[in-house]
Amino acid sequence: MQLVIVESPAKAKTIEKYLGGDFHVLASYGHIRDLPAKDGSVDPDNGFSMSWENYGDKGKQLKAIADEAKKATRLILATDPDREGEAISWHVQEVLRAKKALPQKVDRVTFNAITKQAVTEAMAQPRALDEDLIDAYRARRALDYLVGFTLSPVLWRKLPGAKSAGRVQSVALRLVVEREREIESFVPQEYWSVAAEMEQGGQGFTARLVRWRGEKIERLTIGKEGDAMAAKADVEAGRFTVEKVETKPVSRNPPAPFTTSTLQQEAARKLGFSASHTMRIAQQLYEDGAITYMRTDGVQMDGSAISAARKAIAERYDGGYLPEKPRQYQTKAKNAQEAHEAIRPTEFYRDKVGSGDHARLYDLIFKRALASQMASARLERTVIDLVDGTGQHALRATGQVVIFPGFLALYEEGRDDAEDDDSKLLPRLGVGDAPAKKKVTAEQHFTQPPPRYSEASLVKKLEELGIGRPSTYASTLQVLKDRDYVRIEKNRFFAEESGRLVTAFLERFFERYVSYDFTAGLEEELDDISGGRAQWQAVLEAFWRDFKPKTAEVMEQKPSDITAELDKFLEPMLFPPKADGSNPRACPMCGDGQLSLRGGRFGAFIACSNYPECKYTRKFGQPGGSEGGEDSGPEVLGQHPETGQDIVRKSGRFGPYIEMGEGKEAKRGSIPKDLPEMTLDWAVKLLSLPREVGLHPETGKPIVANIGRFGPYLLHDGKYGRLSSTAEIFEVGMNSAVAKLADAANKGGRGSSSREPLKVLGKHPRTEAEIKLMAGRYGPYVTDGTTNATLPKTIEQDALTLEEAAQLIDARAAAAPAKKGKKAPAKKAAAKKPAAKKAPAKKKAAAE
């Protein structure tokens, strides 16, 4: 019997079907071991030796693999064809060797697509494990560990509120923060455009002013309204005739097939997918045998695939859409490896696969790959110049006509930010023609700051800089979101205060390690290890030699000294010069205090030097306290009708709040965001909380309405119910409160066996357990009676298949038991193990 190891159960099932009875295929469910999340897992003083630890939740699977390996005559490691796949194979081999279960014959096979032909051909061409790729994996893993576990503790101790730093993560964050700074420092510039609406032969067109009073008009030439009105008057008064008609043929070639990064970019633009979601769907399409391997920076296609694509084009379109020769592509990305083909369909006769997001992503991949072998589009660009009788004023109209669509008949690449591309049709005009002038307009414009990064444009920028690898972009961006260093609004990255502060800290104290050139250079060295051109320990030694002393130097500084340095470093942003020339650091509340950056338990903020006499504060992230970040002084809303005390509206570092009284006796309350306006009436209501609705008719215990950390709620006998708004706190009556609490209690029983399933999907193809689709508190989920897996929003419950449900359950089962696995050793040493395992859990996030 020959044992084949792959990563996923879906892949295992497909491959076993191709190989026949002598082969048994098992899944490792991804990586089986990693560096323990604790100090000492990498030892720089001992040749960067690494202490690996098996994942706690993989014990059952490893036992199954080891048991089968002992009976096998040959072990075939068939994990993904990249560095991570090579690493998983190496880990499996090492674990089996330690268990004395390694068969005598061990082979490595790789295939770029999960089809019968690709798998069969790969099995006929086995090789040994690639030691260079394994060394590259070890170098990257050690490097990321050393950066995370050395730099993150510095952040925790010197920068309150900071969570982690990472080799690629911090550089990606710097890009987002620098763009935010560009936007904030941008000064809009006024300019005007003058255009004439004209008509010839019943067809209208627009001509823009390009010469006025003998001078060429650029975009910013007319900067004042007076000049714009004068130019408009001159155009209105002039009689314009065609001086020149220039028609120029233009050819557009199709884009190359997808790489990992271009797929992420285009899926973000056209489908609205995040990078992580794109990779998750692409992984499933690959494992289903629908597309080739989805982690690649190569743009070339296999010769047989090109032939199949050309055949499909010939069948779909007439001969003009097929170029004479096949197209060959070369990547322009920095550090590209081109070890694998571009992402393409495995079969070009299949133009549709799956449903929902799977179908949409496959359609994108199919059309891009097919279009890459189609004929160029032929267009005709026309430029018409019109001049008035004096020759001093000129207008220009431009248009573009598609003569032959070529690949555009199937696919057109998206753009991150729309450009002013005038593709309107123009009427037929000849020299000397005088089209009718219908209307002249003068429009005011203002220059715009550079746009914030979208996922697509940020991935593109990272790739251009040579930072990170295509397979890491999705996880890198996800970490930034998970750490709350950025937020996403309208598909754009906004830098949060914590992200800005971490970036400032790293720029000030670790500038080299967040510089673009250094990070890209390090990527090149790591790629040299993959290619056998560099020794992995030597690369790590060169990095560690400078990095370790630098972190030790910063760790010795007092937090107050760090804050003082950041105060100076961030002065242009936090305290920009004022228009009237006054001191930008002067406290607006007391007048004689000086503002400076302060560090607190929950992060940084701006405060007055006269604290505690002056309690002025403002948020860290707002330059000069703009956008509501500044406390311009307390506002008295009025007097409480019962106590007669002033109720004051204030703003602190945690947002606006109201206060009544002074010192320890003062009553305070945060101002909810859903209130349209803070009035005296609302202030009195908020200060009266919590509100007792009444006694529950069944238990006789009080029902209380209040505002908590997660919004308005009801509380009864330790059980909670959610309220929809702040107003509902004061409006909800007894009947409604009892009903809401009952609903909340019912929804809590998500796993109850008494509830009816929405659908019974069938037996799990690998475990035989019955899979059901259920309605849960947070949406539909699937369960096999042991494991529950939430249904992603991308999968419609009506279109859910048994295999998709099984994959969701398998993925959840592989991830969920991790916590139990961590606790298992506690049985041997109950007094010490739990405490020992607690600290690594906290540090694990830092290394990501």
Question: Could you characterize what this model shows?
Answer:
- The chain has 848 residues and is α+β, with helices and mostly antiparallel strands.
- It folds into 8 domains: 2-129, 3-Layer(aba) Sandwich (Rossmann fold); 161-186 and 458-557, Orthogonal Bundle (Topoisomerase I, domain 2); 190-253 and 378-446, Distorted Sandwich (Topoisomerase I, domain 3); 260-375, Orthogonal Bundle (Topoisomerase I, domain 4), CATH 1.10.290.10; 560-619, Bacterial Topoisomerase I, domain 1 (2-Layer Sandwich); 635-688, no CATH class; 691-749, no CATH class; 759-811, no CATH class.
- The protein contains 24 helices and 32 strands.
- A hairpin with a 6-residue loop joins strand 29 and strand 30.
- The longest helix has 28 residues, at 131-158.
- One of its GO terms (molecular function) is DNA topoisomerase type I (single strand cut, ATP-independent) activity.
- Residues 1-114 form the Toprim domain.
- Its EC number is 5.6.2.1.
- Residues 164-169 are annotated as: Interaction with DNA.
**Number of separate structural domains:** 8
> Which range best describes the helical content: under 10%, 10-25%, 25-40%, 40-55%, 55-70% or over 70%?
25-40%
Number of strands: 32
Find the CATH superfamily of the largest domain.
Topoisomerase I, domain 3
The CATH class of the largest domain turns out to be Mainly Beta
From the spread of the alpha carbons, the general shape counts as globular
Distance between the termini: 39 Å
